[in-house]
Amino acid sequence: MxxxxxxxxxxxxxxxDAEVAHEQTLRGLRVLGRxxxxxxxxxxxxxxxxxxxxxxxxxxxxxxxxxGMDKNGxxxxxxxxxxxxxxxxxxxTAHPQPGNERPRLFRLVEDEAVxxxxxxxxxGSDALAARLAAYGPLGYPLGISLGKSKVTPIEDAVEDYVTxxxxxxxxxxxFAVNVSSPNTPGLRSLQDAGHLRELLTALHxxxxxxxxxxxxxxxILVKIAPDLTDQAIYELLQVxxxxxxxxxxxxxxxxxxxxxxxxxxxxxxxxxxxxPLTEVAAKMVAHIHAETGGxxxxxxxxxxLEPADAVRLFDAGxxxxxxxxxxxxxxxxxxxxxxxxxx
Length: 343
Fold this sequence. Notes:
alpha/beta; 3-stranded antiparallel beta sheet; single chain; 343 residues; 16% strand
């Protein structure tokens, strides 16, 4: 039904503008979340009875929604109805920002892929904190993805991240440090060992201070790019191990266009996600798992369009997985099928 009825309608919205479909979907989900019992019923239909505990957090299902779908957290009451066991909100920045100019989201339907250059469009960490306070307990683990504001110079990035962590610390069950989006100038340089060590040291110090203040310890993870060399991955993992990072999210979108070189939209700038990342993500997860001896939990994300893709990430060493682009092409039925397989 999704492929034959719903998806064609969504693809026509806004004269084919993918971001319009995204916005309308979130509005619809927000309404769904206001219907008493909708989330509970949907969770029973689409969810999983395969709970697990990872980095000290109990997840009702290991299948979550990746960051980027619900940046401002407007539909957080609804995602369990789709079958997700956890949600990562954001990426959020210290300063509100509109993101890059539109159009900035493109479907490569033939390749089951998406190119985005959104640029961390969000209302800012103050606004997200207010929204999360109004929600109260969500009933599932919430991850919060932190990014750098575009107006903040790279030399001041540490304080930018720390500010958002401080504002949101009481609301997140874990925090993802996004240093790998290709859509904020200079951001990926923060994956370099020196910059990353400085950033993670400051975030852990702030988290420790907040923990002493009565908010408890919260896991901090790092989200990395699929375009890193093996040497860069080795150095990054060494820093993460030294600092005591709780886990790795692998991977973000790629700037490589080899898999979609013949598509007319391939020249659009931004990060590529979807089917072209299936193989890349699985290899990255396996590599990180091998490098760390399985000691560092991994959230596998990228190229999940079938249950077998999720299984492959679990087999490669992922403790949890996240879906985003697969939801666009397969709909909520994909989440149900993954969860059924796990159960």
